Hints:
Helix 1 (2-15) packs across helix 4. Helices cover 74% and strands 0% of the residues. By secondary structure, it is mainly alpha-helical. The protein starts with a helix and ends with a helix. The chain contains four helices and no strands. The protein is elongated, with a radius of gyration of 15 Å. The chain has one domain (2-79). The protein has helices at 2-15, 27-37, 46-55, 57-83.
Amino acid sequence: MILASFRALTFFWTATRGSRLRPWRSPYLRWRLETYSGQPAGSIRLRDFWHMAVTERRQIARFLRWTSDLQTIASQTVSEERSK
């Protein structure tokens, strides 16, 4: 659980590069929100970001678990390749 939380924070840190104090301005998160909601990325504001974060929190948690699983698989693959 703690490792999954750390990986979620790692993803968030990476995804908001350049906009860490204003994640709704992150080009990557804007693109993800546009893809998910259909709202144009240029019109996403703080209100829209928080509304989606609250209403879609289960889907966001599921997505973060998925990214954690992918990071685990990737790190295992890298360590297996290094040990050869």
